[in-house]
User: What shape does this take?
Amino acid sequence: MKTTLLTLSLAACFVGLHAQDHAFSQFFANRIYLNPAFAGMEKGLQVVAGARSQWLKADGGYKFVAVAAEWQEPAWRSGFGLSVQSGDEGIAPLNATSAALTYAYILPYKNGNVHFGMQYAWNQKTLDWNRLTFSDQLDPVFGPIYGSMVNAGLDRVTYHDFGAGVVWRFESGQIERKNSLKSFRSHLGISLQHLASLFGEGPDDSFYQTGQEVPARITLHGGTIIPLTYLSGSTHKMVVSPNFRFETQGFSPLNFGKSTTLFSAGAYFIFEQAVFGAYYHNRSPLPGYKNTTAVALSLGFTHNEKKEKKHGYYFGVSVDVNASGLGPRAGNVYELQMRYNFREVRPLSAKRHAATTRKTVMECKDFY
Assistant: This one.
């Protein structure tokens, strides 16, 4: 396993790989990471944290943490976000850290909202070359006893990055029961990350400054929330929400044959405060065992009453059972997500908001 990870680390340093951004299995819970247009979707101050760990049986493994704070200014029809992310992999380790500022403009209309988001990020990658062992240092009997002729590159690389996204949230699907109509809410969105690489020359993130650009990423996602209470007549809160995500990342992201792709589809089910989820991850939208990467199962708890002084929250854990590649031998993927909404935090535009009669932002229901 050491040899495998060392080979992967050296390949990433010396040759240009089609690197893939970090991806969460519970993408519905970490909205601002999925699409910057989601910033400030709910009233009050929201704090979001996610942690992901994989390849636990390998030396160093892979760990990723993302923390964000976001808030809504309804009178300005705006949402703001601040996020920090950090990932470690390998025994060196290779660390990637990012800090981002996000702004979203929210355009409400009769039965929904259209969210336009933009994001600026400062990124840094570091590598401890002294903790790497190269083949010319190895003795067949005594191990790494020689010096290496390999010229070490930079131990730190920084660059600026930009992203954008659009989300359309709307009421749809009228459900009729006992002479009453109930609607459920849906959303569709697209996110574009590493815009400079998508439309021109992007930043160079290689330790040898070889001109290797950060590959552009395009994410399509959507979902709906169906209140089963209206169908069953039960007094218990029951909701089912199917969702999907498709990501493609590469120097020509629309050329799927030369890009890294990921398709996730599944649903979560809410009964009272308990949340159960099941998702299928595949390398392409077409099902098939050879393209299947994992099946993810999640369990969580949520509370989201629409009352000014009631806090909303979601806590969830998930496990990805890997089906192909390095995953089955290196261990499964484990993830923890937390989202907490401080609704009593008043917006900066509170006075203006109290006086305005314009239509405000459509409130979030459950997650989306």
